Amino acid sequence: VCNHPKLVLTPSHPEYMTILSDLRAKSSSLSEIEHGCKLPALRQLLLDCGIGHAASDTSTDLVVSPHRALIFCQIKAMLDIVENDLLKTHMPSVSYLRLDGSIPPSSRHSVVARFNSDPSIDVLLLTTQVGGLGLNLTGADTVIFVEHDWSPMRDLQAMDRAHRLGQKRVVNVYRLITRGTLEEKIMGLQKFKLLTANTVISGENASLETMATDKLLDLFALEGKSPQQATNSSGANLTMKAVLDNLPELWEERCYEEEYDLTNFVKTLRQ
């Protein structure tokens, strides 16, 4: 419903025939982009980027757009809606290619190569699963997410398709989000997951310098017992000095000299 009612109103839906009858009475249909809030927004965004022109524009001049876009959806059904209900019907001047699970893996490289090499192709329609990994799409400088993944890393990987070596232009990323719906929670979870990952895997936590003394001593605890878990006979916690006293004693310098003496090592080989 956040994207388009056609994704929910299938022939098996109990209200399907009733809604179709109401739309026919108003000389409308489910294919009208006004029934899906994201399609009018996507059309306006493409026009603002200089991609294509409205169907009412009678100009037939072929103009190379100043920007080229990657449009990501989660499912093929939404790509079908964008392609059939928006591009073909309302923006016929927009030239596009499509890359999803229906394209054989052996043919995907040729689609990518054609898009990158032909500036007259304005848009590449992709699913996040197929177009999110391993592709170099530096021919585009605009990334548009119509749908969003629960995992922020998948969306970041999709963004990186345009942020690759060889990209010479600024890449702008746009997200179409329906206010007051589940999508806001998805974006909130994405932000939380990224914040958590950045906190755990950060430069400040990557060094022993930031570790407290008791945490550092935990690294030397034997038999799975930490110094904090160890107690003395009276039940009181051991002090740090007691923990250090319990660590194995280091060898004397003479022991190291005998153990790693080259002459002694050669003698053992001859025996």
TrEMBL record:
PANTHER family from the UniProt entry: TATA-BINDING PROTEIN-ASSOCIATED FACTOR 172
SUPFAM superfamilies: P-loop containing nucleoside triphosphate hydrolases (SSF52540)
Organism: Cuerna arida
Entry keyword set: Hydrolase
One Pfam family recorded for the sequence: Helicase_C
Entry GO MF terms: ATP hydrolysis activity; DNA binding; TBP-class protein binding
Top-rank taxon: Eukaryota
SMART domains reported for this sequence: HELICc
Boundaries of every Helicase C-terminal domain copy: 58-212
UniProt-recorded name of the protein: Helicase C-terminal domain-containing protein
PROSITE patterns cross-referenced by the UniProt entry: HELICASE_CTER
Family annotation (InterPro entries): Helicase_C-like, Mot1, P-loop_NTPase, SNF2/RAD54-like_C
